[in-house]
């Protein structure tokens, strides 16, 4: 039996004007496990079906999301003005069967003074994170503390 892991797909959109995120797919050869087919989402919906907002305690303004169609492609549009938030979806994927992830998006209006190496200018137009469930009984005390600290912060 293949080992199953829970994957939380978190799309973190910071200062994003437009995200062409029409499909998130875990794939290998012709087989695919579709996680987010935004192209079949309901037009005008705030969030695609099954996706949940991710907000941050220290950031007062969140990114606004809406399902739109542009040039015949249905996508999630994210508008951020001095704001940040994200979208998450928890899924179970067999990583041995589907070891590849495919994602596409479109970003407009990049910030000219953004610099990921400097805290005062750190800003990202778009990010995609993939996280994995783990058994805390099999992890060191130090890693468990880091995990708990991360949970408390986010």
Output the strand order for the largest sheet. 4-7-1-9
Which sheet architecture does the biggest sheet show?
4 strands, antiparallel
N-to-C SSE series?
A: EEEEEEEEEH
Low-pLDDT residue spans: 1-23, 26-30
Distance between the termini: 34 Å
Helix percent band: under 10%
Alpha-carbon Rg, integer: 17 Å
Number of strands: 9
Q: Tally the helices.
A: 1
Describe the fold and architecture.
This protein has one domain (5-111, 122-153). The N and C termini lie far apart (34 Å). The chain has one helix and nine strands. Strands 4-7-1-9 form a four-stranded antiparallel beta sheet, with no helix packed on it. A three-stranded antiparallel beta sheet has the order 3-2-8, with no helix packed on it. It is mainly β and 154 residues long. Helix content is 8%, strand content 39%. It is globular, with a radius of gyration of 17 Å.
What key phrases describe this protein's structure?
four-stranded antiparallel sheet; DUF3047; signal; mainly beta; disordered N terminus; 154 residues; globular
In short:
The chain is mainly beta.
Topology at a glance:
Elements: E1 5-14, E2 23-28, E3 31-37, E4 52-54, E5 64-70, E6 73-79, E7 84-93, E8 100-103, E9 127-132, H1 141-153
């Amino acid at each position: 039996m293949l080992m199953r892991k829970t994957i939380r797909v978190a799309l973190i959109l910071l200062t994003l004007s437009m995200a062409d995120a029409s499909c998130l797919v875990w794939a290998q050869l012709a087989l695919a496990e579709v996680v987010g087919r935004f192209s079949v989402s309901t037009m005008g919906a705030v969030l695609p079906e099954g996706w949940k907002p991710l907000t941050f305690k220290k950031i007062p303004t969140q990114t606004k999301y809406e399902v739109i169609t542009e040039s015949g492609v249905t996508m999630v549009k994210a508008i951020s003005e001095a704001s940040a938030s994200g979208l998450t979806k928890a899924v179970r994927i067999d990583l041995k069967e589907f070891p590849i992830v495919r994602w596409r998006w479109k970003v407009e209006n990049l910030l000219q003074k953004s610099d990921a190496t400097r805290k005062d200018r750190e800003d990202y137009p778009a990010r995609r994170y993939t996280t994995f469930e783990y058994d805390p009984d099999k992890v060191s005390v130090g890693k468990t503390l880091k995990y708990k600290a991360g949970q408390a912060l986010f």
